[in-house]
Protein backbone atom coordinates (compact mmCIF):
# COMPACT_ATOMS: atom_id res chain seq x y z
CA UNK A 1 0.00 0.00 0.00
CA UNK A 2 2.62 2.41 1.11
CA UNK A 3 4.72 1.65 -1.94
CA UNK A 4 1.86 2.27 -4.38
CA UNK A 5 1.19 5.61 -2.83
CA UNK A 6 4.81 6.58 -2.85
CA UNK A 7 5.48 5.26 -6.37
CA UNK A 8 4.62 8.44 -8.32
CA UNK A 9 6.85 10.41 -6.02
CA UNK A 10 9.66 7.93 -6.32
CA UNK A 11 9.35 7.89 -10.12
CA UNK A 12 9.56 11.66 -10.12
CA UNK A 13 12.61 11.78 -7.88
CA UNK A 14 14.43 9.26 -10.04
CA UNK A 15 12.93 10.42 -13.32
CA UNK A 16 16.23 10.62 -15.20
CA UNK A 17 17.19 7.11 -14.19
CA UNK A 18 13.72 5.89 -15.22
CA UNK A 19 14.00 7.63 -18.59
CA UNK A 20 17.44 6.18 -19.28
CA UNK A 21 16.39 2.69 -18.31
CA UNK A 22 13.34 3.03 -20.58
CA UNK A 23 15.44 4.19 -23.51
CA UNK A 24 18.00 1.41 -23.01
CA UNK A 25 15.31 -1.29 -22.82
CA UNK A 26 13.57 0.07 -25.93
CA UNK A 27 16.84 0.17 -27.88
CA UNK A 28 17.72 -3.33 -26.79
CA UNK A 29 14.31 -4.67 -27.85
CA UNK A 30 14.59 -2.86 -31.16
CA UNK A 31 17.90 -4.53 -32.00
CA UNK A 32 16.77 -7.95 -30.76
CA UNK A 33 13.92 -7.83 -33.28
CA UNK A 34 15.97 -6.11 -35.94
CA UNK A 35 18.62 -8.84 -35.88
CA UNK A 36 15.99 -11.53 -35.58
CA UNK A 37 17.29 -12.68 -32.23
CA UNK A 38 13.72 -12.38 -31.04
CA UNK A 39 10.61 -12.79 -33.08
CA UNK A 40 6.87 -12.69 -32.51
CA UNK A 41 4.25 -14.61 -34.41
CA UNK A 42 2.89 -11.31 -35.62
CA UNK A 43 5.79 -11.18 -38.07
CA UNK A 44 4.76 -14.51 -39.52
CA UNK A 45 1.18 -13.25 -39.92
CA UNK A 46 2.46 -10.19 -41.71
CA UNK A 47 4.26 -12.38 -44.22
CA UNK A 48 1.09 -14.36 -44.81
CA UNK A 49 -0.89 -11.17 -45.21
CA UNK A 50 1.56 -9.96 -47.83
CA UNK A 51 1.50 -13.31 -49.61
CA UNK A 52 -2.28 -13.34 -49.69
CA UNK A 53 -2.50 -9.76 -50.83
CA UNK A 54 -0.30 -10.58 -53.82
CA UNK A 55 -2.35 -13.71 -54.44
CA UNK A 56 -5.59 -11.76 -54.52
CA UNK A 57 -4.03 -9.23 -56.88
CA UNK A 58 -3.10 -12.10 -59.17
CA UNK A 59 0.60 -11.53 -58.59
CA UNK A 60 1.42 -14.70 -56.68
CA UNK A 61 0.64 -18.27 -57.56
CA UNK A 62 1.41 -21.68 -56.09
CA UNK A 63 -0.08 -24.74 -54.44
CA UNK A 64 -0.03 -23.25 -50.93
CA UNK A 65 -1.76 -19.94 -51.75
CA UNK A 66 -5.31 -21.29 -51.56
CA UNK A 67 -4.88 -23.28 -48.32
CA UNK A 68 -3.25 -20.21 -46.75
CA UNK A 69 -5.53 -17.49 -48.02
CA UNK A 70 -8.90 -18.99 -48.90
CA UNK A 71 -9.65 -22.21 -47.07
CA UNK A 72 -7.25 -21.32 -44.22
CA UNK A 73 -6.30 -24.95 -43.78
CA UNK A 74 -2.79 -23.84 -42.96
CA UNK A 75 -2.75 -22.48 -39.43
CA UNK A 76 -0.80 -22.27 -36.15
CA UNK A 77 1.94 -20.02 -37.44
CA UNK A 78 5.06 -19.96 -35.30
CA UNK A 79 8.05 -17.78 -36.00
CA UNK A 80 11.64 -18.98 -35.83
CA UNK A 81 14.29 -16.64 -34.60
CA UNK A 82 18.00 -16.66 -35.30
CA UNK A 83 17.63 -16.45 -39.00
CA UNK A 84 19.95 -13.89 -40.47
CA UNK A 85 20.31 -14.76 -44.12
CA UNK A 86 16.67 -15.47 -44.90
CA UNK A 87 14.09 -12.74 -44.68
CA UNK A 88 11.41 -15.00 -43.27
CA UNK A 89 11.37 -18.37 -41.58
CA UNK A 90 8.22 -19.57 -39.86
CA UNK A 91 6.45 -22.84 -39.41
CA UNK A 92 2.79 -23.73 -39.74
CA UNK A 93 0.47 -26.68 -39.67
CA UNK A 94 -1.46 -28.16 -42.57
CA UNK A 95 -3.73 -31.04 -41.56
CA UNK A 96 -1.25 -33.29 -39.82
CA UNK A 97 1.92 -32.03 -41.44
CA UNK A 98 4.11 -29.34 -40.04
CA UNK A 99 5.86 -27.18 -42.62
CA UNK A 100 8.43 -24.42 -42.63
CA UNK A 101 8.00 -21.39 -44.86
CA UNK A 102 10.99 -19.54 -46.23
CA UNK A 103 11.09 -16.53 -48.49
CA UNK A 104 13.50 -16.07 -51.36
CA UNK A 105 15.11 -12.82 -52.37
CA UNK A 106 13.33 -10.76 -55.03
CA UNK A 107 16.41 -8.65 -55.48
CA UNK A 108 17.10 -9.75 -59.04
CA UNK A 109 16.00 -8.56 -62.41
CA UNK A 110 12.48 -9.71 -63.24
CA UNK A 111 11.94 -12.32 -65.91
CA UNK A 112 9.57 -10.25 -68.03
CA UNK A 113 10.43 -7.03 -69.77
CA UNK A 114 8.73 -4.28 -71.75
CA UNK A 115 9.22 -3.77 -75.44
CA UNK A 116 7.84 -0.34 -76.44
CA UNK A 117 5.36 -0.65 -73.61
CA UNK A 118 4.39 -4.22 -74.51
CA UNK A 119 4.82 -6.85 -71.80
CA UNK A 120 7.11 -9.65 -72.97
CA UNK A 121 7.99 -13.08 -71.65
CA UNK A 122 10.57 -15.58 -72.85
CA UNK A 123 9.27 -18.50 -74.91
CA UNK A 124 9.03 -21.93 -73.28
CA UNK A 125 12.22 -22.93 -75.00
CA UNK A 126 14.09 -19.87 -73.80
CA UNK A 127 12.74 -20.37 -70.28
CA UNK A 128 13.99 -23.96 -70.22
CA UNK A 129 17.38 -22.90 -71.42
CA UNK A 130 17.69 -20.19 -68.75
CA UNK A 131 16.79 -22.75 -66.08
CA UNK A 132 19.56 -24.98 -67.34
CA UNK A 133 21.97 -22.03 -67.27
CA UNK A 134 21.08 -21.24 -63.65
CA UNK A 135 21.61 -24.84 -62.58
CA UNK A 136 24.88 -25.08 -64.49
CA UNK A 137 26.15 -21.89 -62.90
CA UNK A 138 25.01 -22.71 -59.38
CA UNK A 139 25.57 -26.44 -59.21
CA UNK A 140 27.74 -27.25 -62.24
CA UNK A 141 25.13 -29.76 -63.26
CA UNK A 142 23.76 -30.35 -66.75
CA UNK A 143 20.08 -31.04 -66.37
CA UNK A 144 18.40 -33.77 -68.37
CA UNK A 145 15.56 -32.47 -70.50
CA UNK A 146 12.89 -34.07 -68.29
CA UNK A 147 14.33 -32.59 -65.13
CA UNK A 148 14.49 -29.15 -66.71
CA UNK A 149 10.83 -29.47 -67.71
CA UNK A 150 9.92 -30.54 -64.17
CA UNK A 151 11.74 -27.51 -62.74
CA UNK A 152 9.96 -25.21 -65.19
CA UNK A 153 6.60 -26.00 -63.56
CA UNK A 154 5.21 -25.49 -60.11
CA UNK A 155 3.24 -28.70 -60.27
CA UNK A 156 5.67 -31.23 -61.70
CA UNK A 157 3.27 -33.00 -64.00
CA UNK A 158 0.82 -30.25 -64.82
CA UNK A 159 1.20 -28.01 -67.82
CA UNK A 160 -0.48 -24.65 -67.32
CA UNK A 161 -2.40 -23.78 -70.50
CA UNK A 162 -3.84 -20.45 -69.42
CA UNK A 163 -1.34 -17.89 -70.71
CA UNK A 164 -1.71 -15.33 -67.90
CA UNK A 165 -1.39 -18.01 -65.26
CA UNK A 166 1.61 -19.49 -67.02
CA UNK A 167 3.28 -16.09 -66.98
CA UNK A 168 2.65 -15.76 -63.23
CA UNK A 169 4.03 -19.25 -62.80
CA UNK A 170 7.20 -18.35 -64.70
CA UNK A 171 7.62 -15.15 -62.67
CA UNK A 172 7.38 -17.05 -59.38
CA UNK A 173 9.69 -19.82 -60.53
CA UNK A 174 12.22 -17.29 -61.67
CA UNK A 175 12.70 -16.02 -58.11
CA UNK A 176 12.47 -19.44 -56.50
CA UNK A 177 15.04 -21.04 -58.77
CA UNK A 178 17.72 -18.51 -57.81
CA UNK A 179 17.57 -19.83 -54.24
CA UNK A 180 20.08 -22.53 -53.39
CA UNK A 181 17.74 -24.09 -50.87
CA UNK A 182 14.78 -24.32 -53.23
CA UNK A 183 17.03 -25.61 -55.98
CA UNK A 184 18.59 -28.42 -53.94
CA UNK A 185 15.25 -29.47 -52.47
CA UNK A 186 13.60 -29.63 -55.91
CA UNK A 187 16.37 -31.22 -57.91
CA UNK A 188 17.33 -33.95 -55.44
CA UNK A 189 13.87 -35.03 -54.33
CA UNK A 190 14.86 -38.67 -54.61
CA UNK A 191 17.92 -38.46 -52.36
CA UNK A 192 16.28 -38.08 -48.96
CA UNK A 193 19.11 -35.88 -47.64
CA UNK A 194 17.63 -32.41 -47.97
CA UNK A 195 14.28 -31.28 -46.55
CA UNK A 196 11.45 -32.22 -48.84
CA UNK A 197 9.73 -29.41 -50.72
CA UNK A 198 6.01 -29.27 -49.95
CA UNK A 199 4.77 -26.35 -51.99
CA UNK A 200 5.03 -22.66 -52.80
CA UNK A 201 3.11 -19.42 -52.91
CA UNK A 202 4.69 -16.57 -54.85
CA UNK A 203 8.26 -16.10 -53.70
CA UNK A 204 7.72 -18.24 -50.59
CA UNK A 205 8.29 -21.96 -50.44
CA UNK A 206 7.64 -24.51 -47.73
CA UNK A 207 9.64 -27.58 -46.77
CA UNK A 208 8.97 -30.36 -44.30
CA UNK A 209 9.51 -29.47 -40.65
CA UNK A 210 12.45 -31.24 -39.06
CA UNK A 211 12.57 -31.95 -35.35
CA UNK A 212 15.33 -29.99 -33.63
CA UNK A 213 18.26 -31.95 -32.27
CA UNK A 214 18.74 -31.62 -28.50
CA UNK A 215 20.63 -28.41 -27.95
CA UNK A 216 24.18 -28.55 -26.70
CA UNK A 217 23.25 -26.58 -23.61
CA UNK A 218 20.87 -29.34 -22.57
CA UNK A 219 23.79 -31.72 -22.96
CA UNK A 220 25.93 -29.50 -20.81
CA UNK A 221 23.62 -30.02 -17.89
CA UNK A 222 24.89 -31.83 -14.86
CA UNK A 223 23.06 -35.11 -15.28
CA UNK A 224 25.61 -36.42 -17.70
CA UNK A 225 24.33 -39.99 -17.47
CA UNK A 226 24.89 -43.04 -19.57
CA UNK A 227 21.56 -42.88 -21.35
CA UNK A 228 22.19 -39.37 -22.52
CA UNK A 229 25.68 -40.37 -23.66
CA UNK A 230 23.97 -43.06 -25.73
CA UNK A 231 21.78 -40.44 -27.39
CA UNK A 232 24.77 -38.30 -28.18
CA UNK A 233 26.55 -41.25 -29.73
CA UNK A 234 23.53 -42.10 -31.81
CA UNK A 235 23.31 -38.52 -33.05
CA UNK A 236 27.04 -38.59 -33.91
CA UNK A 237 26.66 -41.81 -35.89
CA UNK A 238 23.71 -40.32 -37.78
CA UNK A 239 25.78 -37.25 -38.62
CA UNK A 240 28.52 -39.50 -40.00
CA UNK A 241 25.94 -41.34 -42.12
CA UNK A 242 24.66 -38.06 -43.49
CA UNK A 243 28.21 -36.96 -44.37
CA UNK A 244 28.78 -40.25 -46.15
CA UNK A 245 25.63 -39.67 -48.22
CA UNK A 246 26.81 -36.16 -49.10
CA UNK A 247 30.18 -37.55 -50.16
CA UNK A 248 29.08 -40.45 -52.26
CA UNK A 249 25.44 -39.86 -53.23
CA UNK A 250 26.09 -37.34 -55.98
CA UNK A 251 28.21 -36.88 -59.08
CA UNK A 252 30.60 -34.93 -56.87
CA UNK A 253 30.71 -34.40 -53.09
CA UNK A 254 28.66 -31.64 -51.51
CA UNK A 255 30.36 -29.33 -49.00
CA UNK A 256 28.58 -27.86 -45.99
CA UNK A 257 30.09 -24.42 -45.58
CA UNK A 258 27.95 -23.37 -42.62
CA UNK A 259 27.99 -26.13 -40.03
CA UNK A 260 26.13 -25.49 -36.81
CA UNK A 261 24.50 -27.68 -34.26
CA UNK A 262 21.01 -26.45 -35.06
CA UNK A 263 21.46 -26.95 -38.79
CA UNK A 264 20.76 -30.64 -38.32
CA UNK A 265 17.21 -31.85 -37.91
CA UNK A 266 15.33 -35.11 -37.56
CA UNK A 267 12.61 -36.47 -39.78
CA UNK A 268 9.77 -37.71 -37.53
CA UNK A 269 10.59 -40.41 -35.01
CA UNK A 270 14.31 -39.59 -35.15
CA UNK A 271 15.09 -42.24 -37.73
CA UNK A 272 16.79 -40.01 -40.24
CA UNK A 273 18.89 -36.90 -39.96
CA UNK A 274 18.80 -34.16 -42.59
CA UNK A 275 20.64 -30.88 -43.09
CA UNK A 276 18.35 -27.87 -42.63
CA UNK A 277 20.10 -24.77 -43.88
CA UNK A 278 20.99 -25.31 -47.52
CA UNK A 279 21.98 -21.74 -48.33
CA UNK A 280 25.66 -22.56 -48.01
CA UNK A 281 25.77 -26.09 -49.39
CA UNK A 282 27.73 -26.42 -52.63
CA UNK A 283 29.18 -29.10 -54.87
CA UNK A 284 32.97 -29.35 -54.74
CA UNK A 285 33.70 -27.85 -58.16
CA UNK A 286 31.67 -24.75 -57.34
CA UNK A 287 33.50 -24.13 -54.09
CA UNK A 288 36.83 -24.84 -55.82
CA UNK A 289 35.91 -22.29 -58.42
CA UNK A 290 35.18 -19.76 -55.73
CA UNK A 291 38.76 -20.09 -54.42
CA UNK A 292 40.18 -19.95 -57.95
CA UNK A 293 38.45 -16.64 -58.55
CA UNK A 294 39.87 -14.89 -55.50
CA UNK A 295 42.37 -12.58 -57.12
CA UNK A 296 45.09 -12.49 -54.54
CA UNK A 297 45.83 -13.50 -51.00
CA UNK A 298 48.31 -12.59 -48.33
CA UNK A 299 47.55 -15.26 -45.81
CA UNK A 300 45.40 -18.36 -45.48
CA UNK A 301 42.65 -16.26 -43.90
CA UNK A 302 41.98 -14.73 -47.31
CA UNK A 303 41.13 -18.17 -48.68
CA UNK A 304 37.99 -19.05 -46.73
CA UNK A 305 34.33 -19.27 -47.37
CA UNK A 306 32.71 -19.64 -43.95
CA UNK A 307 33.66 -23.17 -42.85
CA UNK A 308 35.05 -24.16 -46.26
CA UNK A 309 38.74 -23.41 -46.34
CA UNK A 310 41.67 -23.36 -48.72
CA UNK A 311 45.27 -22.21 -48.41
CA UNK A 312 47.19 -19.26 -49.74
CA UNK A 313 50.10 -20.16 -51.98
CA UNK A 314 52.78 -17.69 -50.90
CA UNK A 315 54.86 -18.00 -54.08
CA UNK A 316 52.04 -16.99 -56.42
CA UNK A 317 50.01 -14.93 -53.95
CA UNK A 318 46.88 -16.84 -54.94
CA UNK A 319 44.56 -19.24 -53.18
CA UNK A 320 44.97 -22.84 -54.12
CA UNK A 321 42.05 -23.57 -56.42
CA UNK A 322 40.69 -26.40 -54.32
CA UNK A 323 38.91 -26.65 -51.03
CA UNK A 324 41.39 -28.27 -48.65
CA UNK A 325 39.23 -29.29 -45.70
CA UNK A 326 35.98 -31.25 -45.82
CA UNK A 327 32.71 -31.92 -43.99
CA UNK A 328 34.21 -34.53 -41.70
CA UNK A 329 36.97 -32.19 -40.55
CA UNK A 330 34.50 -29.37 -39.81
CA UNK A 331 32.10 -31.66 -37.97
CA UNK A 332 34.90 -33.12 -35.85
CA UNK A 333 36.14 -29.64 -35.06
CA UNK A 334 32.91 -27.72 -34.49
CA UNK A 335 30.37 -30.36 -33.46
CA UNK A 336 32.22 -33.29 -31.91
CA UNK A 337 35.13 -31.61 -30.11
CA UNK A 338 33.67 -28.23 -29.38
CA UNK A 339 34.74 -24.68 -29.30
CA UNK A 340 38.18 -23.71 -28.06
CA UNK A 341 41.35 -21.84 -28.66
CA UNK A 342 44.82 -23.09 -29.50
CA UNK A 343 44.25 -26.72 -28.61
CA UNK A 344 42.30 -26.07 -25.40
CA UNK A 345 38.61 -26.85 -25.46
CA UNK A 346 36.53 -24.23 -23.72
CA UNK A 347 33.02 -25.35 -24.65
CA UNK A 348 32.94 -29.13 -24.94
CA UNK A 349 31.22 -30.53 -28.02
CA UNK A 350 28.88 -33.44 -28.57
CA UNK A 351 31.43 -36.17 -27.92
CA UNK A 352 33.40 -34.56 -25.12
CA UNK A 353 32.16 -35.86 -21.81
CA UNK A 354 33.34 -37.90 -18.87
CA UNK A 355 32.40 -40.98 -20.89
CA UNK A 356 34.75 -40.18 -23.77
CA UNK A 357 37.16 -43.08 -23.90
CA UNK A 358 40.91 -42.70 -24.17
CA UNK A 359 40.61 -44.45 -27.51
CA UNK A 360 38.04 -42.02 -28.93
CA UNK A 361 39.59 -38.72 -27.85
CA UNK A 362 42.83 -38.91 -29.87
CA UNK A 363 40.96 -40.02 -32.98
CA UNK A 364 38.62 -37.05 -32.70
CA UNK A 365 41.56 -34.72 -32.33
CA UNK A 366 43.27 -36.18 -35.37
CA UNK A 367 40.05 -35.86 -37.35
CA UNK A 368 39.61 -32.21 -36.40
CA UNK A 369 43.26 -31.40 -36.74
CA UNK A 370 44.95 -33.92 -39.04
CA UNK A 371 48.31 -32.13 -39.14
CA UNK A 372 48.43 -30.98 -35.53
CA UNK A 373 48.80 -27.37 -36.62
CA UNK A 374 47.63 -24.15 -35.05
CA UNK A 375 44.79 -21.85 -36.01
CA UNK A 376 42.04 -22.89 -38.39
CA UNK A 377 42.56 -26.30 -39.86
CA UNK A 378 42.84 -26.67 -43.57
CA UNK A 379 43.30 -30.35 -44.25
CA UNK A 380 41.08 -33.38 -44.66
CA UNK A 381 41.35 -36.34 -42.31
CA UNK A 382 42.94 -39.19 -44.25
CA UNK A 383 41.13 -42.42 -45.08
CA UNK A 384 42.68 -44.26 -42.17
CA UNK A 385 41.43 -41.75 -39.58
CA UNK A 386 38.01 -41.62 -41.19
CA UNK A 387 37.67 -45.38 -41.20
CA UNK A 388 38.79 -45.72 -37.58
CA UNK A 389 36.41 -43.00 -36.46
CA UNK A 390 33.44 -44.58 -38.24
CA UNK A 391 34.19 -48.04 -36.89
CA UNK A 392 34.94 -46.91 -33.37
CA UNK A 393 31.87 -44.67 -33.04
CA UNK A 394 29.56 -47.36 -34.37
CA UNK A 395 31.03 -49.89 -31.96
CA UNK A 396 30.73 -47.65 -28.90
CA UNK A 397 27.24 -46.55 -29.91
CA UNK A 398 26.06 -50.11 -30.24
CA UNK A 399 27.55 -51.29 -26.99
CA UNK A 400 26.23 -48.32 -25.00
CA UNK A 401 22.78 -48.33 -26.54
CA UNK A 402 22.23 -52.05 -26.42
CA UNK A 403 21.94 -51.61 -22.65
CA UNK A 404 18.91 -49.40 -23.14
CA UNK A 405 17.10 -50.71 -26.18
CA UNK A 406 17.02 -54.41 -25.59
N1 LIG B 1 12.93 -27.42 -42.21
C1 LIG B 1 13.05 -26.93 -40.97
N2 LIG B 1 12.57 -27.62 -39.91
C2 LIG B 1 12.67 -27.13 -38.65
N3 LIG B 1 13.23 -25.97 -38.33
C3 LIG B 1 13.73 -25.23 -39.33
C4 LIG B 1 13.67 -25.65 -40.69
N4 LIG B 1 14.23 -24.69 -41.45
C5 LIG B 1 14.64 -23.73 -40.61
N5 LIG B 1 14.34 -24.03 -39.33
C6 LIG B 1 14.65 -23.24 -38.11
O1 LIG B 1 14.79 -21.88 -38.43
C7 LIG B 1 16.13 -21.44 -38.19
C8 LIG B 1 16.60 -20.51 -39.28
O2 LIG B 1 16.50 -21.13 -40.55
P1 LIG B 1 17.69 -21.14 -41.59
O3 LIG B 1 18.91 -21.73 -40.92
O4 LIG B 1 17.24 -21.72 -42.86
O5 LIG B 1 17.87 -19.57 -41.79
P2 LIG B 1 19.19 -18.74 -41.96
O6 LIG B 1 18.73 -17.36 -42.22
O7 LIG B 1 20.08 -19.35 -42.94
O8 LIG B 1 19.78 -18.80 -40.47
P3 LIG B 1 21.19 -19.19 -39.80
O9 LIG B 1 22.17 -19.55 -40.85
O10 LIG B 1 21.55 -17.99 -38.99
O11 LIG B 1 20.85 -20.36 -38.90
C9 LIG B 1 16.97 -22.74 -38.13
O12 LIG B 1 18.11 -22.59 -37.32
C10 LIG B 1 15.98 -23.71 -37.54
O13 LIG B 1 15.95 -23.61 -36.16
C1 LIG C 1 32.05 -28.89 -63.73
O1 LIG C 1 32.17 -30.29 -63.67
C2 LIG C 1 32.99 -30.83 -64.70
C3 LIG C 1 32.85 -32.34 -64.68
O2 LIG C 1 32.91 -32.87 -63.40
C4 LIG C 1 34.41 -30.35 -64.48
O3 LIG C 1 35.28 -30.90 -65.43
C5 LIG C 1 34.41 -28.82 -64.61
O4 LIG C 1 35.70 -28.31 -64.33
C6 LIG C 1 33.40 -28.20 -63.65
N1 LIG C 1 33.23 -26.81 -63.98
C7 LIG C 1 33.42 -25.84 -63.12
C8 LIG C 1 33.11 -24.46 -63.59
O5 LIG C 1 33.81 -26.01 -62.00
Can you give me a brief rundown of this structure?
The chain is an alpha+beta fold. It is built from 14 helices and 18 strands. α10 (226-248) runs antiparallel to α12, α10 (226-248) packs antiparallel against α14 (383-402) and α13 crosses α14 (383-402).
Beta strand %: 15-25%
Q: What structural class do helix, strand and pairing data support? A: alpha+beta
What is the overall silhouette? globular
Q: Order the strands across the largest sheet as they lie in space.
A: 1-2-3-7-6
The kinds of small molecule bound in this structure are: adenosine-5'-triphosphate, 2-acetamido-2-deoxy-beta-D-glucopyranose
Q: From the 3D structure, determine the CATH topology of the largest domain.
A: Transferase(Phosphotransferase), domain 1
The appropriate CATH architecture of the largest domain is: Orthogonal Bundle
Q: Specify the helix fraction band.
A: 40-55%
Give the distance, in angstroms, between the N- and C-terminal Cα atoms. Answer: 62 Å
Tally of structural domains? 2
Number of continuous helical runs: 14
Question: What is the residue-mean pLDDT, rounded to a whole number?
Answer: 87
Domain FAM69 N-terminal: 5-154
Main location: endoplasmic reticulum
Organism: Sitophilus oryzae (Rice weevil)
Family: Belongs to the DIPK family.
Amino acid sequence: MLLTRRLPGLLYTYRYTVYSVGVIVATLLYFLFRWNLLCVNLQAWQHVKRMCHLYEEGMAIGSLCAPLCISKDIHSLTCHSFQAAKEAVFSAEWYNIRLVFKSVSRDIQALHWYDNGVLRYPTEKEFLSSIRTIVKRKLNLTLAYDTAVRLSRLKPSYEEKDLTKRQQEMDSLWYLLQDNEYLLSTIFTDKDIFPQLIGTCGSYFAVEYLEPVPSLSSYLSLNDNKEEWGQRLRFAVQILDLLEDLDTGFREPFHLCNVKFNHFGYVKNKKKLKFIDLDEVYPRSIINNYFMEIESCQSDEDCEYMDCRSVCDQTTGQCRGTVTNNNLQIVCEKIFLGWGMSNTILVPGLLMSQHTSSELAPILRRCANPTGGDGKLRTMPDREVKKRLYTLLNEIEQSVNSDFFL
